[in-house]
Amino acid sequence: MSSKPTAIPTSIDETQALLQRAHYVSDRSLATVLFLALRLGRPLFLEGEAGVGKTEIAKVLAATLDRKLIRLQCYEGLDIATAVYEWNYPAQMMAIRLSEAAGEHDKARIEHDVFSERYLIKRPLLQAMEPTVAGAPVLLIDEIDRADEAFEAFLLEILSDFQVTIPELGVIKAPEPPIVVITSNRTREIHDALKRRCLYHWVGYPDTAREMAIVRAKAPRAPERLTLELVAFVQRLRKLDLFKSPGVAETLDWASALTELDAVALDPAQVSDTLGVLLKYQDDIAKIEGATAQTLIDETRAELRRSELG
Fold first, then answer.
1. Which of 32, 60, 120, 160 is the most exposed place for a label (fewest CB within 10 A)?
2. Helix ranges (DSSP H) in the chain
3. How does 149-173 read in b/e, with b if 16+ C-beta sit within 10 Å?
């Protein structure tokens, strides 16, 4: 990590180029909202299906801006002790006993000593308040929809003022706000009060051209014909009534898997055998394997032939 902060992009084009340097292929609407979030110092709220690249945006920002990435993975039951801070109670108890053994009986002084930063265990949200020579860190609050609504309410203070109140120490405020990226897979609605503090963007599935560019950038070993066919196949697959359509992450996994199997184009038997890389529910796999896979491949190739002729 460099000793000098990397400059924030000064235009939408610079922002898009920043993403491309890390092989993240974005559309202009995403680059625009990301540019505004960086320039205005506002948290960025990204919503969309799993596997479309929401989390990757935070990772790319940290890498390209040369900032520390601090990730808070949300889950049901997430509390302040896990997300913000907790006291090192065993060490505190040891310090109290040592003080008493040394003849120290001033309770106020002992309390002051044990409730100092020396015994404070800093969790992700508190770590994000600390400045670094490289600039404010990137704080990724991942899958906020998995956390309880009570945790959302707690986040309001942090996202409004970038500060945390610790009763024993007082208010700890970030000298420079972190770059905040919040993601949600929309398994439940997020409260408006939280969204109002953020700039919002829906990250959808990419169109064919952008998904081609993504596969070429992220799975460069895949033969060109295989890339064309598998992306067209996945695009067609997403139009079907599946329990869970494949995301970009699954497309990349499938491209890598087929490349390892020395595939140069889609083969019906290979497609059926590797559907578990692309689809994650047995009902979806059963619906596609066999004759349906053959039909989809035939339709995919016919579509590609028409585009080549046209």
1. 160
2. 12-21, 28-40, 54-64, 80-83, 89-101, 107-114, 124-127, 149-161, 192-195, 208-218, 224-237, 248-260, 268-273, 275-278, 282-288, 291-309
3. eebbebbeebbeebebebeeeeebe
- C-alpha 57/C-alpha 30 separation (Å) is 10
Q: What's at 57, amino acid-wise?
A: I
CA distance 301 to 310: 14
For 241-264, write each residue's pLDDT tens digit.
999 999 999 999 999 999 999 999
Q: How many CA atoms lie within 13 A of 169 on its CB side?
A: 19
Burial label, 146 (beta-carbon count in 10 A; 0-12, 13-18, 19+): middle
- Paired tokens of 276: 């578990």
41 vs 8: CA distance, rounded Å: 11
Question: Which CATH number does the domain 12-79+124-202 belong to among 3.40.50.720, 3.40.50.2000, 2.60.40.3550, 3.40.50.300?
Answer: 3.40.50.300
* C-alpha to C-alpha distances, 29 to 50, 80, 88, 204, 220, nearest whole angstrom: 19, 35, 45, 11, 26
Q: What are the backbone angles phi and psi of residue 234, rounded to the nearest 5°?
A: -65, -40
CA 59 – CA 67 distance, rounded (Å):
10
Question: What is the b/e burial string over 263-280, where b = at least 16 CB atoms within 10 angstroms of the residue's CB?
Answer: beebbbebbbebbebbbb
Q: The pTM is what?
A: 0.88
Residues in contact with 295: Cβ distance below 8 Å, sequence separation at least 6, in sequence order = none
